Amino acid sequence: MGKRVGVLMGGWGEEREISLKTGEAVVAALESLGHHVTRVFAGPGLDRALRAAELDVAFVALHGRMGEDGRVQGLLELLELPYTGSGVLASALAMNKPMAKKLFRLHNLPTPRGYRVARADLARLTELHADWGFPCIVKPSCGGSSVGCAVVRDAEALLLAVARACRYGGEALVEQFVEGREVTVAILGDAVLGSCEMDFHGDAFDFDAKYKGGTRCFHPPRLSPTRIANVEAQALAAYRALGCRGYARVDLLCSDTQNDVVLEVNSLPGLTPTSLLPRIAEHAGLSFAQLVAQVLAAATRDEAQVSEPPTVAAPLVPLRAAM
């Protein structure tokens, strides 16, 4: 029997339009599978909309801040409504790039060196950057779809890029520039589904490269089978380090001169028929509808409950001591 599924789409942030495209693609797939689908547009009053919809499960088709960062997941937990994707903590960690990088290092996963810059620290940027050198990568500390991301080659451009990145959440991340092949790994149900390499014009796989065409994808990546296996193992380790569940997409850089490095974990990757994860799924033999069905089947919630204390039998008292 079909479930009453609410597809959460839209949201408050800069990735709203991408979320709407993901949401409509998911709605079409779920309806083709026989489910009863309600579009739930995320925004003020989301809690009331979710209660009124009387759902069995929420399919989270949101991206970026206020949707992928644990806040909506926390609301769904309070409403005791199962939902797709990672839980509250994993979602928050994956969205906060500096915190995710700390956990990667804790699990011995290589990731580019970097430092954080708050909007209030812009006047100290020259001091903070010190001898980091150029080029470097600037991106918002919390965000996705490479919105606000830039490759910087001098101090003047650094100030402009950091100021722009701070528009999205108030903090920027400045990272060491690593030259190499950009590879993304799809994970479904706590297992690697496959990977692909993105070949694009320019220095970085930025917003234009992702959404305005001109990018070629290679399935599998143009690497040796042994190296692909190692890259995919790194991606799965990064996914597990953050405590993700259900599905995700992990981005890495494969350098010819340095170690392969983990860039980030996308806990709610795009799910349009042309997005990277569905492309990898198709190459692995899964149709878009089958992929959506598997994501839905893994929907759950944390169900944090206080357990009753265990019953412990009273210790036996030796007869002599009792006398």
Q: What keywords describe this structure?
A:
D-amino Acid Aminotransferase, Chain A, domain 1; Dna Ligase, domain 1; globular; four-stranded antiparallel β-sheet; alpha+beta; five-stranded antiparallel β-sheet; 3 domains; 323 residues; Rossmann fold
In short:
The chain is of the alpha+beta class. It contains 12 helices and 12 strands. A 5-stranded antiparallel sheet has the order 10-9-8-11-12. A 4-stranded antiparallel sheet has the order 4-7-5-6.
Please describe what this structure looks like:
By secondary structure, this protein is α+β, with helices and mostly antiparallel strands. It has 3 domains: 82 residues, Rossmann fold, CATH 3.40.50.20; 64 residues, Dna Ligase, domain 1; 87 residues, ATP-grasp fold, B domain (D-amino Acid Aminotransferase, Chain A, domain 1), CATH 3.30.470.20. It contains 12 helices and 12 strands. It has a 5-stranded antiparallel β-sheet. The radius of gyration is 22 Å and the shape is globular.
Number of domains: 3
> Within the largest sheet, what's the order of strands?
10-9-8-11-12
Per the CATH scheme, the topology name of the largest domain is D-amino Acid Aminotransferase, Chain A, domain 1
| Count of beta strands | 12
Biggest sheet descriptor: 5 strands, antiparallel
CATH superfamily of the largest domain: ATP-grasp fold, B domain
Q: Measure the end-to-end span.
A: 68 Å
Strand content: 15-25%
The tally of helices reads: 12
User: From the 3D coordinates, which CATH architecture of the largest domain would you assign?
Assistant: 2-Layer Sandwich
SS content category: alpha+beta
Mean model confidence by pLDDT: 91
* Helical content band: 25-40%
Radius of gyration: 22 Å
